[in-house]
TrEMBL record, chain A:
Parts of the chain that traverse the membrane: 64-82, 107-128, 163-185, 205-227, 234-252, 283-305
Record bears the keyword Membrane: yes
Signal sequence coordinates: none
Protein name according to UniProt: ABC transporter permease subunit
Pfam families reported for this sequence: ABC2_membrane_4
Organism name: Actinophytocola gossypii
Keywords, alphabetical: Membrane, Transmembrane, Transmembrane helix
Membrane among keywords: yes
Superkingdom of source: Bacteria
Length: 315, 958
């Protein structure tokens, strides 16, 4: 039965007879105590799959490490691109580069502009879309559920962990960008594309709100990816599906003929946070965006919970 | 599989439904957007004089009677050039009257530049005419409810009409003038004071002739190419980029004055063929106006008579009588009628007690006509003031700021609003920020003939370059030797200039080189980047004439009002004041001259800033309430879910000691496939039970149901008396290995087990890691990542994982798959010993031999049904039953039947089965041999094997 090539590997794989004795002894000596609900004493549903454990499981994945590492690197890459790019052209008045490199907060704003349409939803889709589908694809999901980790708890813990990782990503990028910006461009005013300027200390507050808004805005991706991740055993399908919907929504958002209908697209308010770079902050777009995101997230989240509650685990 | 296709179908249908609904929604919404129908009626109306006929169009909305709006056209236009705006207003529900003014279109008469007794009187006739129309709401007999609007020349008419006719109820003049003499002959230097409004200009006498614009104007009047009015829309907030290639003409109809300007040809030069049929150089201008123009154009100076004439036809003549609500719209890109003109209008109307709102937008004569948003705002103005509909637009001030820096796709215009135009009656004066300028005294010369001249703007080319602020600000060019420069330090903070900055300059002649005519100078304010790139905001320049300079070189101190602009000067950029002696757009003295220009001591730019009022709207409540509702629903759903999970404890105390009782268990899938059908069996403590059946018998499905992974369609599973469901606490007493190992491939075997145990939340000392790992016997390999493991290693690690915590019931699915024979042997030993220690093991297998050698009890399944159950010996050995393979089965059967006590003799091919009932098999064998039957083989009857082979045989025949 063992494949031929495994023989060398399995060479020293054997059970020591003494180990058997130990196990038998242990089994014979240990009295199993049972709680009234039928569980082994020591088992408590609310202690299963604690966040610390799930975070450890996720943070030790190469994929997560790569994503976080990339986010740390990205501002440096952009800085380098500006450095080398401007030397080549020399023409940098009133343009893209000027805005981005005028101050640290502006650099952060620029980086957020660059990532908030595609990269950020993708990362969130990755964290949420992968979380349960990958367990299913590894077949480890069934062992978690048989532990038993109650299903609602498993989904909740997984969602919270993915949320924490996403939040880390959303915070890490601006924080790193700010660091790069402070080093190279200094703590100047934040200037919006419409020419509104706010002082550095106020811009820090604006950036904080930006991170909060972005975290709320991507909830819709989180909800959708969560729904997909409980619906399929293929992590790529769940992540890709969520990203695909995000792209579709962005494409539809470009079609101005749709007019008011575009307000219902989940990505429509992706840039509403740019209203924060202003002396007189207009919250209406952000509030609408937050509502849109929360509504989508709630819809897909509840759908996910409903599906996962009754789903037959066959992986 | 049908289960999947069914659910896919459901999703497909749902998706289709969503698409259909969305498509329907689009159709419905679009049909709702269909603009209301507008009927038009053309008529020729009588003007104020007998011989005046006015060509007009009345636009009627769907619902009449309605308030009326008179739309006046710009200079060089006709009623057709305002067709788009008129239609828009009619769609908003107003009766709109568009007409061609005297001397324009097919209306008769001469152009009198909005003279009170000519064009303005005509307009009053129109008001009277409107009062007679049944479609128009009237306030009183002969007094229609009427508003008036118009751009540029039409804007001036609006003001003049409102000032001379009380029947006008509201007005919205756009990009128009206050004082035509100052618009065409501005002088921005004064030795006196400047009003407190943000865009106030010195408006001193004796101005410098703005020859290029005046020429364009005159040309338009004589029927030449009309470059006098902007033909594209200005960029608005929310527009993603100002794209000069995409001019959006209001209403869609191309305005007749929109003439393509080719290259940099001087505007106004080309008359369309047949444009001049009289040969009269005055064209349709009234003689006195024509003469005044000729005077100014030839001398560059205006006589008092000319100034008086221009003032008499300017709104300033009547602004003190305007009490109607006035919306003043002025462009920030306007070198013809700058912000200072609207500023003067606002000041004068407000001083007379009128109600004024001021809007500065990104366009103007160089930038573009009001865009759709602003046109909407104008319509809102009339909606409120003529009909009382909508929100009160108030008397505030708003200005559009176009960002200096732009990101692709980002809106580059925003609007700043305050509740009052600064400096008006009773209001706060405009704030001014001092920006210190530096620069020594400089000498600049006026070349003979004023040529070559500096360039600040390209008047009339608004449609070509003016709409692109990127281009417009960069045309500016100063001739060396003719320009004095005073620059600030790089700014520490952004400075948003909103209006006319002022600066105090000292100007003197060089001793011994007196300037006869005083000094003509041009002041402009550049926005200079750290790399030296310069932008002249608004392309605007302030001409100044200092009438007399002492010949001894004593400087004259003047306050110069710089052009009204809206410009954010970003941090690290500088402002630079440049004073030149020439400007191409103006008539400059031909005599050569030299001047000394310097700043006053501590000279500084006084830049007006108008901070926006923070909108008090606060957080928008609608979406927030929505979020609250959604979160409330989620909480409700969570509570409901928790309530559903709270099930009654289903515990049968009698079965407390029975590891597993399966009762009538069924699992059927959609489509009627029964994976498990009415399965019942029982497992007692200490047993090693084998679940035997061919592949597809339902073994794994049963085990999955046992683990709560699949919900049964019927029947129940009890583990130690507790009913099993997904997440049932009693599952913690089961250790399982079902259908393959499940490990995190990126972690080591050891880490996997540790994390698994950590996930159970149970105390680490109960795990017995060491024992379990030793059972797995992976040696050092436990520290390698699982993805490097062989199938067998994973299998052993998975079994070790199942044993963590020494579960009372160990459930293993095909545990020996992938193991080699010595390992299989060890595994059997492990399971037997484990059960012997008082625990229970349930093993599934499709191999009879496996079960026979490992288990003491067996449950045989096939097609989801129970086939046999019992102790292995009972089923395998068959107490007292024997099987003989013989050559003559019939005879052998007879022989056996004759033996004492032997019964149940069955013949099956070459085999004869019999219950020997205590008779030794050897004896029976001897009996057969004695009877002459050749016995090939004799042994216990293997019922299980029979049954099993039969099942497997069936399987293979399929």
């Amino acid at each position: 039965m063992t494949p031929v090539e495994d023989h060398s590997v399995d060479h020293d794989v054997h059970t020591d007879p003494a180990a058997l004795e130990q196990l038998t002894d242990a089994a014979a000596q240990e009295r199993v105590e049972v709680a009234p609900d039928g569980s082994v004493v020591g088992y408590k549903a609310r202690r299963t799959l604690r966040l610390r454990v799930e975070l450890a499981r996720q943070l030790r994945r190469r994929r997560v490490q790569l994503v976080l590492g990339f986010l740390v690197l990205l501002p440096w890459i952009l800085w380098a691109a500006f450095e080398f790019g401007t030397e080549a052209t020399g023409q940098r008045s009133g343009g893209f580069v000027d805005l981005a490199t005028s101050s640290a907060p502006n650099f952060v704003v620029f980086v957020l502009f660059a990532v908030s349409s595609f990269l950020l939803p993708m990362i969130v889709a990755l964290f949420f879309g992968d979380t349960i589908a990958s367990e299913a694809s590894w077949s480890s999901l069934k062992y978690l559920l048989a532990t038993p980790v109650p299903r609602h708890r498993l989904m909740r813990q997984k969602a919270i962990t993915s949320g924490l990782l996403s939040l880390l990503a959303i915070t890490l990028l601006p924080a790193m960008s700010l660091l790069v910006g402070l080093i190279f461009y200094g703590a100047g005013e934040a200037v919006s594309p419409t020419g509104d300027a706010i002082p550095f200390d106020e811009s820090m507050l604006a950036l904080l709100f930006t991170v909060i808004y972005l975290a709320i805005h991507v909830l819709w991706v989180a909800g959708l990816a969560l729904f997909l991740t409980v619906s399929t055993d293929a992590p790529l399908g769940a992540v890709g599906g969520a990203v695909l919907v995000a792209i579709l929504s962005q494409i539809l958002d470009q079609i101005t003929a749709l007019e008011g209908l575009r307000n219902y697209l989940p990505t429509h308010y992706a840039f509403a946070w740019s209203d924060l770079i202003s002396r007189d902050i207009d919250w209406s777009n952000m509030a609408a965006g937050a509502f849109s995101a929360v509504a989508y997230a709630a819809f897909f989240g509840l759908l996910a919970a409903r599906r996962f509650r009754t789903k037959d685990i066959t992986s | 599989m049908s289960r999947f296709s069914r659910s896919h179908l459901r999703w497909l249908l749902l998706g289709l439904a969503v698409v259909v609904v969305a498509a329907g929604g689009v159709v419905w919404l679009n049909s709702g957007d269909e603009p209301p129908e507008v009927r038009t009626r053309e008529q020729t109306l009588a003007g104020a004089a007998d011989d005046i006929t006015l060509d007009s169009t009345l636009y009627l909305p769907e619902q009449t009677p309605a308030p009326a709006i008179i739309v006046a056209h710009g200079f060089g236009g006709s009623k057709d050039s305002v067709d788009g705006e008129a239609r828009e207003l009619a769609q908003r529900g107003f009766v709109v009257l568009a007409y061609s003014a005297r001397g324009f279109g097919v209306s008769s008469g001469e152009i009198s530049l909005n003279a009170p007794d000519a064009e303005v009187a005509d307009a009053r006739e129109l008001v009277s005419w409107l009062a007679e129309q049944p479609e128009v709401v009237t306030d009183a007999e002969g007094d229609p409810r009427v508003g008036v609007t118009g751009g540029s020349y039409g804007g001036a008419l609006s003001l003049m009409l409102a000032g001379t006719d009380d029947r006008v109820d509201a007005l919205a003049p756009t990009i128009t003038y206050n004082d035509l003499s100052q618009a065409l002959l501005p002088n921005s230097a004064t030795t006196g004071d400047v009003p407190d409004t943000p865009a106030a200009n010195a408006f001193a006498d004796n101005g410098v002739f703005k020859q290029s614009w005046a020429g364009i104007f005159f040309a338009a009047g004589v029927g030449g190419a009309g470059l006098a009015n902007p033909s594209v829309d200005a960029v608005e907030p929310g527009n993603e980029d100002d794209d000069p290639d995409a001019p959006a003409n209001p209403g869609g109809a191309p305005a007749p004055e929109e003439a393509p300007a080719e290259g940099g040809a001087p505007p106004g030069g080309g008359a369309p063929p047949g444009g001049l049929d009289t040969g009269d150089p005055c064209g349709k201008f009234r003689q006195d106006i024509c003469a005044a123009y000729a005077e100014v154009a030839t001398t560059g100076r205006a006589s008092q008579q000319t100034v008086d004439l221009l003032r008499s036809v300017s709104p300033m003549a009547v602004t003190d009588r305007i009490t109607q609500p006035t919306l003043l719209v002025q462009g920030e890109q306007d070198t013809l009628f700058g912000l200072d003109q609207a500023d003067a209008n606002a000041r004068q109307i407000s001083a007379a007690g009128g109600e004024v709102k001021v809007v500065w937008y990104t366009g103007g004569h160089d930038g573009g006509a009001p865009g759709p948003q602003l046109r909407g705002e104008i319509a809102d103005w009339f909606d409120f003031h003529l009909r009382g509909r909508g929100e009160d637009p108030g008397t505030g001030f708003e200005y559009a700021v176009q960002g200096a820096l732009r990101v692709q796709g980002a809106p580059s215009v925003r609007t700043v609003s305050t509740d009052a135009y600064p400096g008006l009656d009773g209001g706060q004066v405009a704030q001014r920020q001092r920006v210190r300028l530096y620069g020594p005294q400089q000498t600049i010369i006026n070349p003979p003939g004023g040529n070559p001249a500096s360039v600040s703007s390209m008047p009339g080319l608004g449609a070509v370059i003016g709409s692109s602020s990127r281009l417009a600000g960069r045309v500016a060019f100063d001739m060396p030797g003719q320009a004095a420069r005073f620059a600030s330090r790089p700014l520490d903070n952004q400075l948003l200039i909103a209006g006319s900055s002022t600066v105090r300059l000292l100007v003197s002649t060089l001793p011994g080189a007196p300037a006869q005519d005083g000094a003509v100078l041009f002041a402009k304010l550049y926005d200079v980047g750290s790399d030296g790139a310069r932008v002249l905001p608004g392309s605007a320049v302030s001409p100044l004439r200092i009438p007399s300079l002492p010949a001894d070189g004593t400087p004259v101190e003047v306050t110069v009002t710089l052009p009204g602009i809206v410009r954010p000067i970003e941090t690290d950029r500088r402002v630079e004041l440049v004073v030149t002696t020439t400007d191409q757009a103006y008539a400059t003295p031909p005599e050569p001259a030299a001047f000394r220009v310097s700043l006053v001591e501590d000279g500084a730019l006084e830049a007006p800033v108008v901070p926006g009022t923070r909108s008090d709207t606060g957080l928008p409540t609608g979406p927030l309430v929505g979020i609250g509702i959604v979160l409330g629903l989620v909480v409700l759903a969570a509570v409901w879910g928790a309530f559903r999970r709270r099930r009654a404890v289903d515990h049968d105390a009698a079965l407390d000691d029975v590891p597993l009782v399966i009762d009538n268990l069924s699992k059927s899938y959609a489509g009627g496939v029964k994976a498990v059908d009415d399965l019942s069996f029982r497992v007692e403590r200490g047993q090693v039970v084998g679940l035997l059946g061919p592949n597809g018998a339902g073994k794994t499905t049963s085990l999955r149901m046992l683990m709560g992974l699949i919900s049964p369609s019927g029947g129940s599973i009890r583990v130690f008396g507790h009913k099993v469901y997904s997440g049932a606490p009693v599952l913690s007493r089961i250790g399982s290995f079902v259908e393959g190992a499940g490990f995190l491939p990126h972690l080591s075997g050891k880490a996997n087990l540790e994390l698994y145990w950590a996930a159970t939340g149970r105390p680490a000392d109960k795990a017995h890691f060491d024992e379990a790992l030793e059972i797995a016997g992976l040696g050092d390999a436990v520290h390698r990542r699982v993805k490097t493991y062989s199938q067998g290693m994973r299998q052993r690690l998975a079994i070790a994982q199942a044993m963590l915590g020494l579960p009372d019931l160990l459930v293993l699915d095909e545990p020996t798959n992938g193991l080699d024979p010595p390992q299989i042997h060890q595994m059997r030993e492990v399971l037997r010993r484990y059960a012997a220690a008082g625990r229970t093991v349930l093993v599934s297998s499709h191999l009879l031999a496996e079960v026979e050698q490992t288990c003491d009890h067996v449950v045989v399944m096939h097609h989801g049904k129970l086939v046999a159950t019992g102790p292995v010996e009972a089923i395998v050995g068959g107490a007292g039953e024997a099987t003989f393979r013989v050559d003559r089965p019939i005879d052998a059967a007879d022989v056996l039947r004759d033996s004492d006590g032997v019964h149940d003799v069955v013949v099956e091919g070459p085999l004869v089965h019999a219950n020997l009932n205590g008779l030794a098999r050897a004896e029976a064998l001897a009996t057969l041999v004695r009877a002459g039957v050749a016995v090939e083989q004799a042994g216990p009857r293997r019922r299980l094997e029979d049954a099993f082979l039969q099942l497997v045989g069936e399987e293979s025949r399929k």
